[in-house]
């Protein structure tokens, strides 16, 4: 009788429970009772195969499931660097799991054993990991995030790490960022779905030999099926013009299919005001001085489209298709530049003036497609990856230049010059790649791969002059340049871990065959070479808090395609840009010795030897009174320095990241204008970056970051740059259960990022004052809809050659 009554009572409870919905929550901590933020929490049905729901812990390590039906479940919690926790849960009422402790474990990353942590900034053996998910930067664009990434410097449209241009990857896939398009491309990409940015200062053999450091942008991963989307926007107000960015992204996932689509448009106007002073020298005496006031307004409205489809054929095989498009239509890509130059004679008396108006329109279509195939073998971690890629790049530009020459106090020109220029470039790239990964044991790993790339480029320059109002082609300054390059690459690496030591050795070999032809001069420039790129890593974990490591890498910097064009592209009657089809690749040897103590403090000494470095020289032709920008190889460059980094939690709601770098740079270069004399320039410089992260309100939904950057005078071969600094403040407020966010901020509050450059040696004397719209008021918003627990599978194009479509400098 008692058994019957008990069973009946339990039946009534179960029936009652089925009619209700319940809450399951808990707190995830480590073994020191510290909350683990953003750990994955997945709730399975009792069979352990079908996912019932999924979420992540918040900043305080708390997770919560609502509207659960009475049933038996399996709760699994995981986080990088910690062992997974799994437990059976029977839901018959609101249930609090209390403290759930994840135990720390050692994780193998690129052959280096590390203990993974999750602060805003994590220092690893060969990289810094900057976690930006749900930070004040997450509803800005990617370029804004890079500006705040420790160790990364963004100035004048160029991104550098340790004074060198890095290679950019997304989820370990190479992405093309041509220099002329880099700001627009990154500003048109929302940071909403970015999890972290890895700054890999010494890339292993798996990564391309091209470039210096690697910036790997890691996006969030999906955990359950469904649909989500977002809309985002950004408004920036400068001293002259506003800038906008609008976009939307959508992600849909089923058991086997992942799809992602992102579209953004970035209409903006940018203003630049430069002052330039040149002394033309003859026989060590100044015979003429020019003072130029230059103003430029550039209008752009770039559109970015990124999409990919991944399909899982079965447990071991999957395929993927990706496309990336950058479109800059002609009607919205215009530049107007005006310059007034005063010419003084040897006695500093005004001799004449000339006023130049340069208006141009550009058009760019950059379309890329990638097909991927992944096969997973029966052995855990063993896999084969195949990839095929094609890029079709088309650029065209038309400029109209009018110059009037005036005598002092005269309003009527005594001479007028007018010329027009049409330039265009078509590039087609094809690549195929194979990668194989094999875990030999729990502590040893082997990987190898092959890659072939073919690049075909056609560049056209047609210049027209006007004589007595009649338009004629200037054959002397018109040309067609054909370029063809094929590259074969193979790599392999082996890594091994012991209790206190980690070791990794890799070798990448590349063969390159280049053919160039200038049709107007019928001049061929052919070259072929084989290069070897070894990499070596050794780490000794002295104890739980201290480690010492040594790295060596050899890297290559290939010339950008436009740097090889021998054209003289005139900006004014008295200034032009030209390239060199015989440019050699730059080869770097980089040695790094680092020591980390107390986990959070790292000293790193590096030495870099650069052979045949490429620089864009700005020099004056003292005979013809011309200002020339020419891409050329210098002789040798040497740099070395000491870096110090730390991440410190000062208070519960205040964390501090600091980086200081003291470095020496010496460049031996052959002068272009003085019969190729060998000249040397060197300088000690300093760089510092301090970023404060603050959290406000009880739920930490209001956050802020305050960053300050300082750069002392820096030498770059023949040119020295002055001190610059900047203070940025940004606030972010999460709304609607973290489905929406708004942010406001100011960049370069005191407008101190503008700087001067000086080129002064032998018979060269050029001084420039550069002013941009660096101080900006910024407002951004993000709104997510659909399944907010879902993250996207955004990918970008895997191709190293596309970053050579345009020059390094804007």
Q: Quick recap of the structure?
A:
The protein is mainly beta and 810 residues long. It contains four helices and 49 strands. The N and C termini lie far apart (88 Å).
Set down the secondary structure blueprint.
Blueprint: H1 2-18, E1 22-29, E2 40-45, E3 51-56, E4 62-68, E5 71-79, E6 82-91, E7 95-101, E8 107-109, E9 112-114, E10 121-123, E11 127-131, H2 142-148, E12 152-155, E13 158-161, E14 167-170, E15 173-174, H3 182-187, E16 194-200, E17 214-219, E18 226-237, E19 242-253, E20 257-282, E21 285-312, E22 317-328, E23 334-345, E24 350-376, E25 383-406, E26 415-441, E27 444-467, E28 470-473, E29 479-497, E30 501-518, E31 523-541, E32 547-557, H4 561-564, E33 568-572, E34 575-578, E35 586-597, E36 601-611, E37 614-621, E38 626-633, E39 636-651, E40 654-670, E41 678-696, E42 702-711, E43 714-716, E44 719-721, E45 724-735, E46 740-747, E47 755-761, E48 764-772, E49 776-786
Parallel strand pairs: 1-7, 14-17, 34-38
Antiparallel strand pairs: 1-4, 2-3, 2-5, 5-6, 8-9, 10-11, 11-16, 12-13, 14-15, 16-17, 18-19, 18-49, 19-20, 20-21, 20-48, 21-22, 21-23, 22-24, 23-24, 24-25, 25-26, 26-27, 27-28, 27-29, 29-30, 30-31, 31-32, 32-35, 33-34, 35-36, 36-39, 37-38, 39-40, 40-41, 41-42, 42-45, 43-44, 44-47, 45-46, 46-49, ...
């Amino acid at each position: 009788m008692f058994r019957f009554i008990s069973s009946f009572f339990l039946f009534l409870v179960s029936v009652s429970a089925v009619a209700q919905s319940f809450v399951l929550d808990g707190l995830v901590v480590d073994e020191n009772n510290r909350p683990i933020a953003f750990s994955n929490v997945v709730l399975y049905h009792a069979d352990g195969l079908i996912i019932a729901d999924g979420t992540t812990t918040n900043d305080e390590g708390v997770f919560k499931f609502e509207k659960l039906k009475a049933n038996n479940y399996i709760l699994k919690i995981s986080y990088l660097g910690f062992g997974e926790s799994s437990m059976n849960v029977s839901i018959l009422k609101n249930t609090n799991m209390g403290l759930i402790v994840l135990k720390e474990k050692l994780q193998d990353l690129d052959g280096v054993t590390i203990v993974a942590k999750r602060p805003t900034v994590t220092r690893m053996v060969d990289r810094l990991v900057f976690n930006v998910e749900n930070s004040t930067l997450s509803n800005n664009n990617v370029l804004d995030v890079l500006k705040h990434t420790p160790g990364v410097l963004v100035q004048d449209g160029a991104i550098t790490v340790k004074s060198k241009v890095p290679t950019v990857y997304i989820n370990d896939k190479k992405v093309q960022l041509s220099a002329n398009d880099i700001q627009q491309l990154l500003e048109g990409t929302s940071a909403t779905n970015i999890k972290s940015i890895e700054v890999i200062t010494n890339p292993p053999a798996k990564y391309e030999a091209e470039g210096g450091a690697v910036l790997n942008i890691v996006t969030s991963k999906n955990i359950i099926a469904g649909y989500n989307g977002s809309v985002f926007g950004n408004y920036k107000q400068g001293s002259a013009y506003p800038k906008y960015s609008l976009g939307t992204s959508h992600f849909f996932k089923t058991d086997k299919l992942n799809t992602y689509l992102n579209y953004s448009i970035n209409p903006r106007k940018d203003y630049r005001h430069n002052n330039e002073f040149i002394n033309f020298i003859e026989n060590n005496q100044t015979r003429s001085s020019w003072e130029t006031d230059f103003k430029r307004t550039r209008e752009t409205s770039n559109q970015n489209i990124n999409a990919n489809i991944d399909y899982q054929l079965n447990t071991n095989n999957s395929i993927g298709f990706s496309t990336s498009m950058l479109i800059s239509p002609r009607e919205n890509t215009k530049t107007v530049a005006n310059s007034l130059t005063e010419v003084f004679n040897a006695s500093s008396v005004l001799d004449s003036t000339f006023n130049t108006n340069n208006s141009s329109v550009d058009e760019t279509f950059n379309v890329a497609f990638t097909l991927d195939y992944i096969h997973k073998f029966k052995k855990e971690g063993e896999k084969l990856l195949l990839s095929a890629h094609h890029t079709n790049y088309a650029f065209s530009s038309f400029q109209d230049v009018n110059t009037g020459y005036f005598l002092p106090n005269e309003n009527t020109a005594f001479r007028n010059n007018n010329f027009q220029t049409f330039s265009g470039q078509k590039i087609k790239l094809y690549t195929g790649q194979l990668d194989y990964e094999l875990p030999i044991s729990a502590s040893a790993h082997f990987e190898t791969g092959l890659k072939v790339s073919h690049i075909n480029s056609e560049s056209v320059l047609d210049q027209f002059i006007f004589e007595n109002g009649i338009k004629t082609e200037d054959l002397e300054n018109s040309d067609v340049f054909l370029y063809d390059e094929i590259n074969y690459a193979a790599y392999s690496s082996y890594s091994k871990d012991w209790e206190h030591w980690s070791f990794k050795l890799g070798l990448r070999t590349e063969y390159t065959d280049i053919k160039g032809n200038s049709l107007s001069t019928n001049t061929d420039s052919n070259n072929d070479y084989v290069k070897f790129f070894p990499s070596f890593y050794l780490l000794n974990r002295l104890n739980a808090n201290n480690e010492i490591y040594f790295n060596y890498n050899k890297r290559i910097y290939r010339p950008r395609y436009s740097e090889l064009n021998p054209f003289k592209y005139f900006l004014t009657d008295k200034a032009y840009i030209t390239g060199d089809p015989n440019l050699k690749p730059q080869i770097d040897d980089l040695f790094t010795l680092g020591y980390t103590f107390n986990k959070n403090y790292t000293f790193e000494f590096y030495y870099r030897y650069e052979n045949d470095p490429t620089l864009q020289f700005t020099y004056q032709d003292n005979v013809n009174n011309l200002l020339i920008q020419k891409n050329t190889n210098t002789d040798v460059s040497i740099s070395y320095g000491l870096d110090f980094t730390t991440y410190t939690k000062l208070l519960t709601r205040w964390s501090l990241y600091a980086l200081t770098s003291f470095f020496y740079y010496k460049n031996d270069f052959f002068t272009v204008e003085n019969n190729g004399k060998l000249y040397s320039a060197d300088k000690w410089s300093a760089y510092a970056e301090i970023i404060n992260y603050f959290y406000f309100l009880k739920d930490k939904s209001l956050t802020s970051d305050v960053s300050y950057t300082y750069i002392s005078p820096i030498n770059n071969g023949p040119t020295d740059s002055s001190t610059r600094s900047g203070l940025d403040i940004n606030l972010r407020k999460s709304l609607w259960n973290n489905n929406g966010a708004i942010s406001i901020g100011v960049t370069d509050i005191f407008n101190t990022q503008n700087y001067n450059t000086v080129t002064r040696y032998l018979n060269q004397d050029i001084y420039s004052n550069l002013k941009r719209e660096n101080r900006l008021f910024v407002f951004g918003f993000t709104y997510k809809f659909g399944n907010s627990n879902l993250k996207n599978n955004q990918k970008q194009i895997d191709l190293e050659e596309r970053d050579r479509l345009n020059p390094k400098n804007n």
